[in-house]
Amino acid sequence: MPSSTHTRDLFGGDQPWSSSDWTDSDDRVRGGHSQSHLTITPTQPTTAVFQGNLDIKTLGGAGFASQRTTGEDRVWDLSPYDGLLLDLDAADTKRYTVTLKDELLPKSSNGREQSTVSWEYDFTVDPNATGGLLFVPWKDFSPTYRGREKNDAKPLDLKNIKRFSLMMRR
């Protein structure tokens, strides 16, 4: 758990979720068939449901379904905090990943996003559990580049977080 009591709701909690803050970023950009959804119900706007269909065959087991924050100009300063606290209601046996990015490059000439270092934390949730809190300290996030570890990455700039993602994969 965090060493301080200083907290801030980024999504949910005291802040209602907004579907306009999120968009899909699925393996369809690479020819896969996975599809994700983030659903916010009008009667419970402080809770979001992340779900989808994971295609693990088309790309030889490399399928992924994810939702990411929108907007190229958004910045979160997370430096006063010890990590992320995820409030999970229920899950299945799939592997999930929370991803942070502190750099976004302009789109390439073909309109696609350019790759940058991602800071990832993988987790699974006991499908028999009825929810709970998962605290992830910053030191547990690992730098990756295009899905591979990047040991020589510069440290995560917690004052300059530009994107959050939530992904399911095998």
TrEMBL record:
Coiled coil residues, start to end: none
InterPro entries linked to this entry: Galactose-bd-like_sf, NADH-UbQ_OxRdtase-assoc_prot30, NDUFAF1
Top-level taxon in the UniProt lineage: Eukaryota
Residue ranges, compositional bias (Basic and acidic residues): 1-11
UniProt biased composition (Polar residues): 33-45
GO molecular function: unfolded protein binding
Region annotation (Disordered) ranges: 1-45
Residue intervals of the NADH:ubiquinone oxidoreductase intermediate-associated protein domain: 15-169
GO biological process: NADH dehydrogenase complex assembly
Family according to the record: Belongs to the CIA30 family.
This protein's name: CIA30 family protein
Organism: Coleophoma crateriformis
